[in-house]
Write a structure and sequence with these properties.
Largest sheet: 7 strands, mixed
Structural class: alpha/beta
Number of strands: 12
Strand content: 15-25%
Order of helices and strands: HHHEEHEHEHEEEEHEHEHEEH
Shape: rod-shaped
Distance between the termini: 57 Å
Number of helices: 10
Length: 303
C-alpha cells in the first residue's frame, strides 16, 4: 500500500469520526477541498459511496459504514508498520562509535570527518571508556563499532587491526632525558609511568602495559586515581612521565614539558576496530571501508 492510499484512509477514518470534512481539514492543517478530493479518490476506486454529503455535514452511508469497520484495524496495523520502519531507518542513520585507544587519534579524526562529509545524513555519536566497557557495549548492541588497543581479547566480536603509530613520552622539560631526540624503554627504566585511572579501570589498557613490561628494562607503572588532566599536571611538576600516540603529541604543547618519541622494541601502538558481523547497519561497513582505504593510502605514502 502506498503512502497516498494511507493518507486517503486517514482522512476517511477521521471524517467518519468527526462527521465533518471542515473539522478534519483543520485538524490536519490542509484545505477542506484536499480532504474531499482524497475521499472522492477512494470512492471512485472502490466504486462505492462512503459518505452522504449535506449542508449540515457528512454521514456514513450503510455501505460506507461496513467498509470503514472492515478497514479500521488494517489501517492501524499498516500505520504502525510504517512508523516502525521510519524509526528503524532513523536509527540506522546513527553511528555509535566507542574510543578506548590512546593511539591513532589523528587518524580517527580524519576518518570520522571523511564519513560525515561522504554521508552527511549519518549522525555520529562518540563515547570513550575502557576496552572492557566498549567490548561489552558492542555485544549489547549499545555501540556499533569501537576502536581500541590492539591485542585486547574481544570474545563474540569481530576484530581487525586497522592502524598503528608510534608512541610518544611526555617528560618534564628539565628532566635529564629531555635532551635526547628519542628514547627507548630502557632509557625510561625505573622512571614512573603515570597511568590515569578512570571510573571503569586504568586508561592504559593491560594489553599495552604487558607490551611495555615485556622489555628487558621497563618503567615503573603507577596507577593514578586521577583524570588525564591531573596526570599531565603531575608530569609538569616532575612526578613522572606519561605516554600517548605520536599523532596526538604532535598537535599538543604543554607548558613545562617536552614530547619525545619512543623507539625500539615495543614502540608501536596498534588500534583495532571491533564490531559485530551481525550488525545490520550499512554505515558500519562504510566506515570500515573508508578506514581500510585511509590506512592503505598512508602505507603507500610511507613506502
Amino acid at each position: 500500500m502506498t503512502e497516498d492510499s494511507l493518507r486517503h484512509l486517514k482522512y476517511a477514518l477521521a471524517v467518519a469520526e468527526l462527521s465533518s470534512m471542515r473539522s478534519v481539514a483543520r485538524a490536519f492543517g490542509v484545505h477542506e477541498s484536499t480532504v474531499s478530493r482524497n475521499i472522492g479518490a477512494i470512492e471512485r476506486q472502490l466504486e462505492i459511496q462512503i459518505f452522504q454529503r449535506g449542508h449540515t455535514g457528512v454521514q456514513l452511508t450503510e455501505e460506507g459504514r461496513d467498509w470503514i469497520e472492515s478497514v479500521r484495524g488494517h489501517y492501524d496495523g499498516l500505520a504502525e508498520a510504517l512508523n516502525s520502519a521510519a524509526r528503524r531507518n532513523k536509527e540506522n542513520d546513527k553511528l555509535r562509535i566507542g574510543l578506548s585507544a590512546p593511539f591513532g587519534r589523528e587518524f580517527l579524526v580524519r576518518l570520522i570527518d571523511r564519513v560525515e562529509k561522504t554521508w552527511p545524513r549519518i549522525d555520529v555519536a562518540i563515547q570513550d571508556g575502557s576496552c572492557r566497557k566498549q567490548a561489552n557495549a558492542i555485544r549489547r548492541r549499545e555501540l556499533d563499532i569501537a576502536f581500541m588497543c590492539g591485542g585486547y581479547e574481544t570474545r563474540g566480536c569481530h576484530a581487525e587491526t586497522i592502524w598503528q603509530e608510534g608512541i610518544a613520552a611526555l617528560l618534564p622539560a628539565d628532566h635529564p632525558l629531555s635532551g635526547k631526540a628519542a628514547l627507548t624503554w630502557g632509557d625510561l627504566a625505573d622512571e614512573r609511568l603515570l597511568v590515569p585511572q578512570g571510573a571503569d579501570g586504568p586508561l592504559l589498557e593491560p594489553c599495552l602495559m604487558h607490551q611495555i613490561l615485556a622489555n628487558d628494562r621497563a618503567p615503573i607503572i603507577e596507577q593514578c586515581c586521577a583524570c588525564q588532566a591531573t596526570v599531565l599536571l603531575k608530569v609538569q611538576i616532575g612526578k613522572g612521565f606519561t605516554i600517548t600516540g605520536a599523532s596526538f603529541a604532535k598537535g599538543v604543547n604543554i607548558v613545562g614539558t617536552v614530547w619525545r618519541p619512543i623507539i625500539g622494541p615495543g614502540s608501536l601502538g596498534h588500534v583495532q576496530a571491533v564490531w559485530l558481523k551481525s550488525n545490520p547497519k550499512r554505515a558500519v561497513l562504510r566506515l570500515l571501508g573508508i578506514a581500510r582505504n585511509m590506512a592503505a593510502e598512508q602505507r603507500s605514502v610511507s613506502d
